[in-house]
Amino acid sequence: MDRPKKRDVLRAVNSMSSLCQNGEKKEGIRAVNSVCSISELTDEDLLSRLLDRPRLKLERKKSYEEMSLSLYDSAHSLDGRSGWDTPVFSMKYSSDLNPMVTEAWEALCRSQVYFRGKPVGTIAAYDHASEEVLNYDQVFVRDFVPSALAFLMKGDPDIVKNFLLKTLHIQGQDKMIDKFKLGDGAMPASFKVLHNPIKKTDTIIADFGESAIGRVAPVDSGFWWIILLRAYTKSTGDHSLAERPECQKGMRLILSLCLSEGFDTFPTLLCADGCSMVDRRMGIYGYPIEIQALFFMALRSALSMLKHDSEGKEFMEKIVKRLHALSFHIRSYFWLDFQQLNDIYRYKTEEYSHTAVNKFNVIPDSIPDWIFDFMPLRGGYFIGNVSPARMDFRWFALGNCIAILSSLATPEQSMAIMDLIEARWEELVGEMPLKICYPAMESHEWRIVTGCDPKNTRWSYHNGGSWPVLLWLLTAASIKTGRPQIARRAIELAEARLLKDGWPEYYDGKSGRFIGKQARKFQTWSIAGYLVAKMMMDDPTHVGMISMEEEKHMKPPLRRSSSWT
Ligand code: GLC
């Protein structure tokens, strides 16, 4: 056997090290041979390595396993539950690693939550200094996604599998809010493990929105669950989990909630304010892009995992029809670029009948002033929301990145979104990637729309704040579109501050310069988001577990502006 070069070994350790294997030794360490540093790759190389294929365990080469064993022979062993105060790992060579990556792994490992001895998720924030814990000591479904991706990329899928099964079990519980029962498919926003040291028992309490501020059910949780199940399947090549009857049923229950017929005239999903990552009143009620893009990705993910039995087929037919309508609707009506803005600016109103050009009767006077300066000649994006006589022109990061990753955006639209991010770097990235939305609301508008929310003041938190977790989405979108230099630039910014500042939850200010007013420190998804971004840059094929190629039959029937023709 050829001995691996030390440089290769370190690089592999850097990107997917087995830093927090609690207890038993895991065998899930991937082959190193294919891994090379981003700096050695051209952009074309990166793109061509972006394969939409399962990361099979078979990829792991024996030589690397042997090598890894010698690397990890001093790997820690934790006895059990949380390991809060236990040194998380000890490794030869650890001083040679990128110290920020090493610290991030340590922090991520510390954040693991155990149920009856098994890791089932990661806590939202492990902030000793914060006097108010609120619900940051819980495992949030959406927050766990970047943690899960980090563990999958590292070749440690058990925690992800445990999480998927545990949340599925929670989905099956009775969900009452006062005297009202929530839909069977609803997935929790978060759950907490209660350890009873005397009885030595663990129990779980979950929150489906009944304890959350505003009592809104998290529509995104079920979608993330399906998306994560696909990522797990792609990463491990283990189809047996998704094929289990309980997983098939869980998927069908989630799908029943969002594919049921109602009074809708649009294929998009009608949502309450605060039903996503933006989990308090922020004027995103209606048809927020944040949810529509996740809806689209979850539908496509489910389609690839549903069994072709009679129940599965019924859903598959519904999904195919919905995907078709949804992509047409969003690509046509949510898309905004210079040309389209100019068209809306010149819209006639009060047009009756299906021949109307201004289909939603948008009054041009309602177009906000800022958008005329913000819109570059080259570039475009999916706007925040479209409903009768209402277009929310705000730019939302998650929705646009997910649109790229799921191929809801056409390749041309994806390019245009990246063009816009580059053209409006100061506004959207500034000093800390990435603004959750742009621009912030202020004064009268802020009072009316947020209900005077003191946490969502202008350029803070959900109102134009900068969220480091979004770095992983920007990185994935950059790699998918063959523009890794965008991610590189963003990662550099994050590296200048994140560790030093103690991994804050969010940053405030027009350019994201200040640690958020009420931001938690050691916010797990800020840590995991950074690790995922780094690992994807080291090995762009990782993007395949969270990205999808365009379906040929979904080619856009409408071609109306120069930025995507
Ligand atoms: C805040 C965020 C939400 C996140 C939660 C836990 O409520 O708005 O998106 O899931 O904190 O981190």
Automatic annotation (TrEMBL):
<dbReference type="InterPro" id="IPR008928">
    <property type="entry name" value="6-hairpin_glycosidase_sf"/>
</dbReference>
<protein>
    <recommendedName>
        <fullName>Alkaline/neutral invertase</fullName>
        <ecNumber>3.2.1.26</ecNumber>
    </recommendedName>
</protein>
<keyword id="KW-0378">Hydrolase</keyword>
<keyword id="KW-0119">Carbohydrate metabolism</keyword>
<dbReference type="GO" id="GO:0004575">
    <property type="term" value="F:sucrose alpha-glucosidase activity"/>
</dbReference>
<dbReference type="GO" id="GO:0033926">
    <property type="term" value="F:endo-alpha-N-acetylgalactosaminidase activity"/>
</dbReference>
<keyword id="KW-0326">Glycosidase</keyword>
<dbReference type="GO" id="GO:0005987">
    <property type="term" value="P:sucrose catabolic process"/>
</dbReference>
<comment type="function">
    <text>Invertase that cleaves sucrose into glucose and fructose.</text>
</comment>
<comment type="similarity">
    <text>Belongs to the glycosyl hydrolase 100 family.</text>
</comment>
<dbReference type="InterPro" id="IPR012341">
    <property type="entry name" value="6hp_glycosidase-like_sf"/>
</dbReference>
<dbReference type="Pfam" id="PF12899">
    <property type="entry name" value="Glyco_hydro_100"/>
</dbReference>
<dbReference type="InterPro" id="IPR024746">
    <property type="entry name" value="Glyco_hydro_100"/>
</dbReference>
